[in-house]
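Task 17 of the worksheet. Students: predict the tertiary structure of the chain below and write it out as structure tokens. Keep your answer in the requested format; marks are given for formatting as well as content.
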Amino acid sequence: MFPRLEWRTVLKALAGFLVGLAIWIFLTPAYDKFIAAGAEKVIRAFEKPKVTRLQMAEDKNVTVDRADFDPRSKRPAIPIRDLTFNIVLLTALFAASKRPFSDRNILGFVISLALLAVSHIFGAVVEVMSIYVAKLGMWSTVHYSDLERNVWGVLNHFYRLVLMYAIAFALWWIFRGPDTAPVKEAAPAAARRKKKKR
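Model answer:
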């Protein structure tokens, strides 16, 4: 069950949100490089020849380059940070737990972060492919079919509008720490058993 909305829960969620926001802002430059490197490896694993390069630019965006692009053409760029801010939501959800510092909750949070990183690499791959299939003019038309444009375009919008949030909630739901509610419900049952013994 979702935690009951009481002031302690709200304060813990707010504290978790602020901590998550600080972590996200502070670690974004290094984390963006990690996600870009992972996405590049995934894309190149399916390319023949391997031509995609994802590199950090001075404006902190990731530049999408290919060895077969015209050297004179402008390189598109993507802000990886736009794909990763659900870290803040995940942190807030785990912080709102009845026992946020329990071993199980902390372990669940760490596992969730690792899985969330995988989803961020997936999101970056989808973002790059959506550029390839639809945003490079004639090059996109020549190299990709209408079906590919539709698939990658829908995936990109679906990730940004739905999956980013759904993944964070799903990971929290699966790996969240213990709730104290069942303990409270078990107390009357224990009292009834004592009465029977008498």
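Marker's comment: The chain has a mean pLDDT of 86. The chain has six helices and three strands.
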